[in-house]
Write a structure and sequence with these properties.
Number of strands: 33
Largest sheet: 5 strands, antiparallel
Strand content: over 45%
Number of helices: 2
Shape: globular
Length: about 450
């Protein structure tokens, strides 16, 4: 075991009872955490959760919970909460529509001032990232279904990347971006003749971060496309890009047989994308190493790719990290693929990795967190630190034995520390529902 200094890791007792879990998380499908976590305009760690028909927002300061706000909740389904540089709060909520009117709004973004006073709500029906050739059956029927709800703010823009069930009965992601000054939907005019599109199906997990004049997104798919798909939407320059950067093997002919049980298994779990502040982005996830039949029997390992999003990501020259993997992928397992910049960070021969997560610090280092299980026994939270050039500054080490991560949420970096909410692990069947804020000095 690794000895961790008590000064490195601290637990803030919130004195609140709240189960921290990702509702809907299943095998390699993400869920939506019951507790959203973010930082405010001062860099203070905040968290929020649904309580009845309200959202409770808590701010921390000097190692303890300092204040609480109650927000009026628009939709009945909790998605996420965040804050902009002016201290305004935003709640993403949703509601199911099982009827036949596909024009109804099912996802909502509500803006509040710093005191929690409601300013305005806007809604979307799931068409915001669908090109014109998608009919209304591709609109959102059940938001935050079969995936997560990830939100990011960049100046006066806000983006949501979420999983949803469509009226067609199928699942995909959807991206929605708004101008928070005008509280109106915005999309880049770039794209093909049919307009901007961001659509992957199935989409097991979704991520969104601020980047350049807009946002960068990641989706984990099993068919359209069977890959980790990276995309950007720059609202200032009206440009958009989309490229696959990591492909998954499947046995040949799987899609033709329409065997979803096999197709759904992509031998991977999404982590996070992080803006390194120098124009480059890091992507962390875990996956089987092989892109061939060996994948089905391999343990998933943590990897990182650091790349320049302005370059062609199908070329080795776009990547800061090095490492090549080749094989067969695509929905039918018959397409030759090569991935670049894949640097493996773990090589465990037993046990499993759960909930890979990452966030960048002020120096552009990527801080990677994950949970370990061995012989069905919980081992704790582990941390890896990688510099902007891909050099490992800290190999995997355990930083906490009992703390658990906030599944399907991005940890928050602020002023030299990484924060997250969670419950202590007790045994194989339950966790302590006492909500803690965990603080790790990086």
């Amino acid at each position: 075991s690794v000895t961790v200094s008590a000064a490195d890791f601290k637990t803030i007792n919130t004195k609140l009872k709240q189960e921290v879990k990702a509702t809907g998380q299943y095998i390699n499908w993400d869920g939506v955490s019951t507790v959203a976590q973010f930082s405010d305009e001062k860099g203070q760690f905040c968290f929020a959760y649904k309580s009845g028909k309200q959202i409770k927002v808590f701010k921390t300061k000097a190692g303890k919970v300092a204040s609480k706000l109650s927000l009026e909740m628009k939709g009945s389904i909790f998605g996420s909460v965040t804050c902009d540089e002016n201290g305004s709060l935003y709640a993403v909520t949703g509601k199911k529509n099982t009827g036949s009117d596909t024009s109804k709004n099912t996802v909502f973004i509500t803006k509040y001032d710093a005191d929690g006073t409601l300013i305005k709500t806007v809604g979307d029906n799931g068409r915001s990232s669908l090109a014109d050739y998608y009919d209304d059956s591709f609109n959102t029927s059940i938001p935050f279904d079969g995936g997560t709800c990830d939100v990011a703010v960049n100046g006066h823009y806000l983006a949501v990347n979420y999983g949803r069930k469509m009226y067609s009965g199928h699942q995909s992601n959807s991206v929605w971006m708004i101008d928070t000054d005008k509280m109106k939907t915005v999309t880049p005019s770039a794209g093909d003749y049919y307009g901007y599109s961001n659509y992957e199906s199935h989409s097991f997990g979704q991520r969104a971060i601020a980047y350049a004049g807009g946002f960068a997104f990641m989706s984990e798919g099993d068919c359209y496309d069977r890959a980790f798909t990276f995309s950007t939407a720059d609202l200032e320059s009206n440009t958009a890009t989309e490229q696959n950067i990591f492909d998954f093997w499947v046995q040949k002919g799987t899609f033709d047989l329409y065997d979803m049980g096999i197709l759904n298994n992509n031998f991977a779990h999404i982590g996070n994308i992080s803006n390194l502040g120098n124009g480059n982005i890091s992507f962390v996830a875990c996956s089987a190493k092989s892109m061939n039949s060996k994948a089905s029997g391999e343990l998933e390992q943590i990897f990182i790719q650091i790349f320049d999003p302005t370059k062609d990501l199908s070329k080795e020259s776009a990547y800061i990290t090095s490492g090549k993997r080749t094989g067969k992928a695509g929905k039918n397992g018959d397409e030759s693929k090569t991935n670049y910049g894949v640097k493996w960070l773990t090589s465990y021969t037993s046990g499993s990795i759960e909930n890979p997560q990452a966030v960048a610090d002020d120096e552009g280092n990527t801080i990677i967190l994950f949970e370990r299980y061995k012989n069905y026994s919980y081992q704790g939270v582990y941390c890896i630190k990688v510099d902007p050039q891909g050099k490992v500054l800290q190999k995997a080490k355990r930083i906490a034995k009992k703390a658990q991560l906030n599944s399907c949420e991005t940890p928050v970096y602020s002023k030299g520390y990484v924060y997250w909410c969670g419950n202590d692990y007790k045994n194989s069947y339950q966790t302590d529902t006492k909500l803690n804020v965990y603080k790790y000095k990086v």
